[in-house]
Amino acid sequence: MSITIKDIAKIANVSITTVSLILNNKCHNIGEETIKRVRSIIEEHNYRPNALARGLITSKTRTIGLLVPNITNQFFAEITKGVEDGLSEHGYNVFLCNSYNDIDKEKQYIRVLKEQRVEGVILSSTNTVTQDYYSYLKEQGVAFVLLDRHASEPLNNGIIVDDRKGGFLAAQHLLELGHRKIGCLVESTGLCNIDERLHGYKDALAQYGVPYEEKFVVSGELTIEGGCQAAIKLIEEQIVTAIFATNDLMAIGVYEAAIQLGKRIPEDISVVGFDDISFAHYLTPKLTTVRQPIYEIGRRAAANLIYILQNKLYMPSTEVLDVELIIRNSTSSPR
Amino acid sequence: MSITIKDIAKIANVSITTVSLILNNKCHNIGEETIKRVRSIIEEHNYRPNALARGLITSKTRTIGLLVPNITNQFFAEITKGVEDGLSEHGYNVFLCNSYNDIDKEKQYIRVLKEQRVEGVILSSTNTVTQDYYSYLKEQGVAFVLLDRHASEPLNNGIIVDDRKGGFLAAQHLLELGHRKIGCLVESTGLCNIDERLHGYKDALAQYGVPYEEKFVVSGELTIEGGCQAAIKLIEEQIVTAIFATNDLMAIGVYEAAIQLGKRIPEDISVVGFDDISFAHYLTPKLTTVRQPIYEIGRRAAANLIYILQNKLYMPSTEVLDVELIIRNSTSSPR
DNA sequence: CTGAAAGCGCTTACAG
DNA sequence: CTGAAAGCGCTTACAG
To answer: Does pTM surpass 0.70?
Structure first.
């Protein structure tokens, strides 16, 4: 149905080799006259080479897969944008896949992406990437970079941020304000990032000589609802004057919980989040949070993948981006 | 490198025809014994057919393109999710493309998607789809459905919501509360949706016998910043007691403007938005807004495209989904 | 400077 | 019940 290279060749009265060479700018030895003529015919007929046929023969599909837990989370939407920008500059297109935190769905998608012969996949896995899973990925025979995920060991070709420092910064800020009873909202499935943030929180407590109390750490889903439930549980059972939520969605949940329990932020409870999604700035009060360079994470992941594809070798190590504490209005000294 | 159908055939000691037939479940006439053996070999070697080769021959790539202005806008993130869910159920994968409201980028992407031989594209165009552009799309020879966009004429194969009713509902609510000086924040590039919402606003004014005043309508970008700037301009120049922002991001901008100008919502100014993105619920005060079934829009678009692909005919008309006014705390009677 | 031919990995009539 | 062969639309040595 669509016009093919054969048609163009016939119209131009040359061989398909010639057309192909021109198409791929390998036409050093072809007559200028011919080139011009063929080009104009291509133009005129709005001919576009079939990427499938091309991919079949070159194994270059100019296609990559991006696998995230949920595009609806602002954090991943922003990352996705970074990935797409970084990739499209190099002529790559992206298959978007949501795993919905379902590891089976994730594996299923990896299989489909392989079928589609993507050149690589950028993966923000549902789980922490264990050695086993890492091996599994390697076996798949596609290049990949881990996004916002630590691999448990041979920490390579990934992009992460300094989560531990972020957790430290958050807790330090609260400690400096004079808080001593600081709750922490985490997630239970053992995502490394969250563990690291909790680790940083503990580091800060230790540095300020405040004993770590397990009862101050409550887990829930990394969503608004999850944060709200966890915060209610924490506030009802313990006397905390501040809460460090290990992501911004949970922090929003704390705001909700505060409304329901009749507490004011920051007068009754100070709140610090993590991520700095764009809405953090539009909450009332504006959220104090640890900023990750979200868009940049996406771009770097794209850049790393391009590097791997072009050089056929993996990066030596995981790249660690810096974080920064953004102080706004959700924190103050305890009364 | 990857294992092929030929390898499987050789190992199983059958022809590649047989393997292919089994792969495609067209094996009515093949011995059970053979089927089992081949299946287990496929399993064992983790063989997956090359989608490129398959697509080349069948022209079924099981692939579609989704083109949105900006995935970072919650509205489109939610739609994207709906599209992906609706499509993946039918075994389709989606290429995600952000046009960033750049019509050239949009056309560029359509070309690339064509090259990739997507079976169809779901398009939320930057512009209102004019007759000319509609023809252009048709010429591309890919099936497409228009998402959240009216085609100016032969209104077909699209999904939209009842924007005019939505605008009416928003204004009616404010009028019922007793407001008579109601500002309206719109967008200037002439996006149909916004025009329709403005239309509904005028309808309501007319019905309540309130004269329409052009000076109450200010335009800006459909973003938080755009809404903020437009609101500041409106509030400084006119005495309005309420503002209808034609999307939620602009409404958030009004909140910002209110802070900057020392106005309280809803005491000094009532605000109504449009979309009901999830954050509308977490603003302070919670935003009164016109809810669109965002996720559903995405799913329907996917369903429509599947329908078109399976039946090789376009839907007779644009599907119009209903909207609903969600009254929360950003509106009250004027003082 | 240009073309004929092989081949990428599949599917699908067709033949037996 | 199974296989040989043509062909999808390209690219790329190789030959001239």
So the answer is: yes
